[in-house]
Amino acid sequence: MKTIKRIKVPVIEGLETMGLQELDLVMEEKAAKFAVCENNWPKDAPYAPDCNGSVARTKTHLAVMYHVRGLDLRATEMEDNGRSWEDSCCEFFVSDPFDGTYYNFELTCVGSLLGAKGAGRSNRETRDPALLQRVIRHSSLERKPMVVNGQIIGWTVAMLIPFELIGIDPDNLPVSVRGNFYKCGDLTAHPHFLSWNPVGVPKPDFHRPDFFGELILR
After folding, report:
1. Which of 96, 149, 168, 190 is the most exposed place for a label (fewest CB within 10 A)?
2. Domain assignments of the chain as residue spans, ordered by start
3. Binning pLDDT at 50, 70 and 90, where does residue 151 land?
4. CB–CB of 190/47 below 8 Å?
5. Quick one: the chain helix, strand, coil %, rounded to 5?
C-alpha cells in the first residue's frame, strides 16, 4: 500500500524580497515543516545525511527551503541545467495539475539549478535558462567549486519558484498538487538518495510521480 504524505502550505507574503537570513527566520517561524528522511534504498546507498525542510507560498511563488547536515560536500556544476544531481543537491519535483507531466527543480548546494519537464524519466524537456533565472535562489555557501570529504558540513539552500513555471495560474490556484522533496549526491564520497514521500521501487529512482505526496495550497 502506497504512503501519501500530505502537507498544508501556508501563505506568507513578502518572501520574494527577503535575504537568506530573514527568509530563514520567517520560514522557521511560519512555514510548514517536512523531513527528507526516507532512505528507500539502504542496500544501494546506506548513508543518510540529515535533511529537513520548510515550504510556504506567496500569491505568486512557492518557497522551498532545505537545511542539510552531513558528511562531505561536492559543488562542481557552476552552470544551470548541468548535472546537478551529481553534486550535493536538494530537489523538488511537482506534477503539472493539468497535462499529466511533472517538473523537476534540482538545486545544488551553491545554487546551480537544473529544471526540466516531461511525463517520465526519458524525453524530458530542459527548461529555458531565461525561465530558470526567474527562480529566486539562496545558498549559505559561497558560490565557487569545492569538494570536501571526511568532514561534517551544514548548509542551507532555498528556491522560490513562480507558479507559472509549474503550470499554475497564481490567480486560480488548484486546491492541491502532487510532489516530492529529495536529497541526493550521486558522486559525493557518500552517495545518498533520500525522499520525503516514500518511493517503493527496487532501485534509486526519483522520477516516479506515482509516489508523489500531496501539497495542499488552499
Report:
1. 149
2. 6-216
3. very high
4. yes
5. 15, 40, 45
| Alpha-carbon gap, residue 38 to 197, rounded angstroms | 7
What is the enclosing helix (H) or strand (E) of 72?
strand 61-75
Residues in Cβ contact with 162 at an 8 Å cutoff, skipping those fewer than 6 apart? 60, 61, 134, 135, 170
User: Which alpha helices (H) appear in 75-182, and where do they start and end?
Assistant: 129-132
Q: What is the pLDDT of residues 80-106, one digit of tens each?
A: 999 999 999 999 999 999 999 999 999
- DSSP letter (8 states) at residue 127: P
Beta bridge partners of 108: 89
The set of cell numbers assigned to 44 is: 544501494
User: Which CATH number does 6-216 carry?
Assistant: 2.60.40.1190
Distance CA 177, CA 165 (A): 14
What is the grid cell recorded at 130? 531565461
CA distances from 96 to 135, 167, 194 (A): 17, 6, 22
> Under a CB-based contact definition with an 8 Å cutoff, are residues 185 and 87 in contact?
yes
Q: Which three cell numbers stand for residue 151?
A: 568532514
What does the alpha-carbon distance between residue 148 and residue 60 come to, in Å, rounded to a whole number?
37
pLDDT band per the 50, 70, 90 thresholds, residue 79: very high
